[in-house]
Sequence to fold (602 residues):
Amino acid sequence: MYDGGGVFTKRNIMIEQILHIEIETCLLELYSAKNQNIQFQKTRKEFDGDVTLVVFPLLRVSKKGPEQTAQEIGHFLKEGVKEVCSFNVVKGFLNLSISSEFWFNQFKIAYNTEEFGIQEAKKDDPTYLVEYCSPNTNKPLHLGHIRNNLLGYSVSEILKASGKNVKKVQIINDRGIHICKSMIAWKKYGNGETPETSGIKGDHLVGKYYVEFDKYYKKEISELISSGMEEKQAEKEAPIFIQAQEMLRKWESKDEETVALWKKMNQWVYDGFEVTHKRLGVDFDKNYYESDTYLLGKKVVEIGLDKGVFYKKEDGSVWIDLSDEGLDEKIILRSDGTAVYMTQDIGTAIQRQEDFSFSNMAYTVGNEQDYHFKVLFLILDKLGYDWAKNCYHLSYGMVDLPTGKMKSREGTVVDADDLMEDMVQTSKSIAKDLGKLDGLSDKAADDLYEMIGLGALKYFILKVDPRKKMMFDPKESIDFNGHTGPFIQYTFARIQSLVSKYNSEISDIKFVNIKKEEQNLIKQILDFPSVIQEAATNYSPALIANYIYDLVKGYNSFYQNITILGEENDELKNFRVALSEKVALIIKDSMNLLGVEVPNQM
RNA sequence: GGCUCUGUAGCUUAACUGGAUAGAGCACCUGACUACGGAUCAGGAGGUUGGGGGUUCGACUCCCUCCAGAGUCACCA
Fold:
């Protein structure tokens, strides 16, 4: 969960580092105490001050009441630390006010730092692998995949920004009975239909035949039942089902015709996925295919047997006993010698270690597989791979709909392509109603609708803590008021407009007296670096999303209450434009970490 | 049934990992464009954080116990 460097990344903005050192000296002098738990938090807005020291943990060494302890430390800091200009005590909380000169100077440094908060990875920085998407090739992507893709992509970008080398990978489930079902249905009832002849996107076309399969399968079952067969028997003996199984056997024995059909239909799916991925704005550095990796696990099994981690039953199947860890026995290899999912995952993990020498790996997979990954990491650890402890299951909750659960068999799935298109169309109609896009070319306007529609979707999904199940309400997600992506995009666009109306160049920023609103905004800006680090260690885009929202609210309040371009003092005006510009840059950089773009006009 | 996760305003959700009076948005009320974009801002109302115990200076957060929901426990993936 924490990076290996032992770096203390939490809330490490400059002022807390300074105060930390000073307070250590203070505690030593006043109470001869060392190595105390020094706890800071931001001062709540209803109190005076910028940084608050929680003194309760220090009462042990001060041997005095909270009020008095806080007073003593407060006096010491006010006397000895130039940044501390005043303090007050409320119960056990010491609120410290930091001089506006300090904040101003910090802002100046941030302003002059390009890509403030973002840390470029060097070659020998650790490499993180992020697996996400990992689809089956028998049907198109749906809403659940969207959450998966957005999370995986965003986490990758956040890790990059936190100074890690990152590789995005996916494993494509391209073999097995599911794809054979589509294949057999297409072969029997497809009449040679292709994406070209039908105009249907490849993944949707293959999905169509997966549904067809199910239709004929059910029909055959009921026919068999009405002719007197037991249901279970019928499910096994339905001709189309037997044909699908036969096809899988043919595929496994590398039957030429079957492999050719498999390749053709999978290619349709890949072409379709590519369109979806592109529109969604996600990409991958390397794809792994199950048809390549499903044989990998066998080597591993031998290693495991040699080490005594696994054991063989009489029928030849291979198992691991995890009952000491409070889990059960788990099968690693079937008695017929074929691999199960777990075998493959072990093999793939090791393969990836050979490919990338990663230090950490994150799997973006829904929480219904929590148990699977718990077991997987445990097995890798038992096999003696020291990187196993750095594997992380980025487990996310299901996406529910207001209408109920998403079930593919009941046809209540929200298709990814349809959803994106709906979002874009909605943003189009709203933007047209508002009529602010005069002077934009058709192309530029279309790009904008795309940006807003997808921005709304992405922000809505990413702002929720990944672990929690979430409710996706299409209506609410396209509401452009409130805590939404378009709200943030709007603020960005408005700043662009403001900055472009500022006639002069932003000159060297001179010290000016800043107001409370401005100081608050500066503090929010200075939080950005630690927010990135925190989001990275927690694998949580939601932390970024919520940070941006707070920043934007802070800015809008400033914007609404303080004149910027109307300010007569040139240095003050210069500062306020610079402040606005910096906020815009952070909005842009942080939104990009979510995979969301921001427009100059909307 | 065993194990895991979730439960916060009518709805969607935050809470710096144990800190101050639990923050926001939607919806509902009240105000604000003779300043830079009103897709905005200022304010009001709305909470026994599922219930009950415990730990402590202090609990949405940790422990126990119920209640409700979800997932998982296959020679499925």
Q: What stands out?
A: DSSP finds 22 helices and 14 strands in chain A. The radius of gyration of chain A is 29 Å. Residues 176-261 of chain A form one domain.
